[in-house]
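Annotated sample (chain length 600).
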Amino acid sequence: MNLPNMLQIESLLSACRAGTLTPTDIVREVVARIDAYAVKDTAVWISRVPTERLLSRAAELERQSAADLPLYGIPFAVKDNIDVAGLPTTAACPAFAYEPSESAEVVRRLEAAGAIVIGKTNLDQFATGLVGMRSPYGQPHSVFSPEYVSGGSSSGSAVAVAAGLVSFALGTDTAGSGRVPAAFNNIVGLKPSRGILSTYGLVPACESLDCISVFSGSTSDAWKVERIAGAPDERAPYSRALCSRPLPLTTFRFGILRKEDRFFDGNEANAVLYARAISLLEQLGGTHVELDFAPLKDTAALLYNGPFVVERLAAIKDFHRTHRKDMDPTVGTIIDDAEKYTATDVFDGIYRQHGFQQVAQRMWADFDVMLLPTAPRIVTKQEVIDRPIAANSLLGAYTNFVNLLDMAACAVPAGFAPDGLPFGVTFVAPACTDEDLAALAGRFHEALGEAVGATRTDRPMGEKAEDIPSRERVLLAVVGAHLKGFPLHWQLEHEHAVLRATTRTAPDYRLFALPETTPPKPGLVRERGFAGKGLEVEIYELDAAGFGRFVASVPQPMSIGRITLADGKEVCGFLCSEAVARSGTDITETGGWRYYMTER
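Output written by the structure step:
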C-alpha cells in the first residue's frame, strides 16, 4: 500500500474519490503501521477498536459515496478521557474506568462525516500534566527520541499523528495539553475557542476551561476537523456556536516577547529559533510589537498555584474520596492541594481572572495576534522522574494563561535545534478567530518548509557525519539569510547540514546590504588590498549530493565560489556580483550580517 507517510486528509480523500484507494485499504495500512510502531513505543494506545470492527466500518462506508462525506474513510484517534461507544473510558486510571453508552458529541459528528475511530490514546491521568509521564498505561516518548517526553496530557494523540498512524487525533487542552505535545512531535495542535467543540462526553479536568483540541499534520486539516465537529450543544454548559471574528492575514501586527521575557531555561538554540520565527513572520507581512508578558504570567499562576485547582477536585470529588490510593501519586498530590482552599479563595481567584481578562482585552488594541514559544524546551523523562512538579511547570510557561483568558491558539512547528530536537511556536488570538488564526499559522508553517512529524528523523541537523567519506563532504561558508536563526536557514536544515564552526573571513572582504530583497540579504565581495577585520561566517558541512541540490537553488545575483577564511583555509561560500553589491549599503564595519540585523 503506497499511502503517504503522513496521512493528511486531502491526500486520502482525493485518492478515495478517484477510486485508487478505499477505506478498507486505509484500515489495513493503519493497523499494520500501529503494529509496527509498537516495537518503538508500546504506550501510545490504551484501547483499540478490533480489526474486524474497523473492516466492517470500512465496508459500510464503501456502500456510500465518497463525494458525500467530508471525512470519508479518514482514520482518527481519541484521547481516552473522551467517550467512544464500544470502548472503555479510563482517563488513564483503571479504577475509574467505565463503559459509555454513547460517544461524545464531537466523536459522533466526526463519524457521521465518514471518519473512522481507530482507538483511544494514552494521557496524563485525569488530563493533569504537560509531560505525558503520569499514566499507569506507560509513558509515550517524543517521536524523535525515546529519552525525551512526548508532552502531555494528550501524549498518545500527538504521537499517533506524528508517527503517521492516523490522520488526526482529538486531544484536550486546559493548560496547554493540545499544544505542548504538538511542539515536541513536530505537528500542528489547534486549540479552539472554548465551547466551539462540545465537551459533552468529556471527563472534565477544569470544566470552565476545558477545550477539546485537534492534532494534525497541517492547520488546514485541523480547521477542517474543527469546522465539522463544531456545533452548539445544550448539554455542554460552556458551549457556543461556531463564531467568526476576522483577523488581518496580509498586513498585521503580532505581539512578541521582550528580550528580558524570553525564557528558554538555558536552551540557546531555541532562543535562536524563536528569533527566526519572528523574522519569518515579518517576511509574511507582519510587524512585531513587544508585549508585556507580566499579566499573562500572573494569570497562568492561577491555574495550579491558586484556587482553580479546586475545579480539578470538583470533577472527580467522589472518586478522589473513595479511590485516592488508586491515583497516580503526582496527580493525587496536585488534586489533594485543592482541599486547602476556601470558597472565599475560589471567588477571589475568579475575580482576579476577570481582572486579567480586562487587561488582556486592552492588549489586543496593540496587536492582532501573539507569537509565543510553545514551551521553553523539551525535557527528558529522567528530568520528570527527578523533578515531577518542576519539570511540568516549566512546560506551561507560555501556555497556562490562554484558556483562563478565553483565547484561541494554534501551535505549529518552528524548526529543529542542532541536536535534532524540535521547537514550536504558538499563534494566540482572541476567541472566535479560529479560522483566520489557523490560516495565518498555516502560512507560517508552509513558509518554514519543514517535513511534518517523524518524517524529519532521517538525518536531523546536528547528527555527526563521520560515516560519510571525507571526499563526499563539502564545507560551505554562510554569511547572510542562511545563518542559523534567519529566514532561509531551513534550506540548510532540509539538506541535513551540520554546523562545524563560527569564524571570520580573511580581512579583505566587504559586506553590503542589498536593496529590495525578500528576505533581506547581504552581498559579499573581495577587495584586494582592503584591510578590514574580517566578517563573521558560519561553516556548514553537507554531503556532496545535498550541496549540489543547495547550489542549484541559489538565485542570481548570488553565486557559490571560494572564500578565504581568517586562518588562510579556503571553503565554498556565497559571493555576489560586485556591481549589484555596491548598489547597496556598505555594512562591513558591523562585522557581519547578524550584527547588522540586530542593530537595525
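Annotation: The chain has a mean pLDDT of 92.
Annotation: The chain is about 35% helix and 20% strand.
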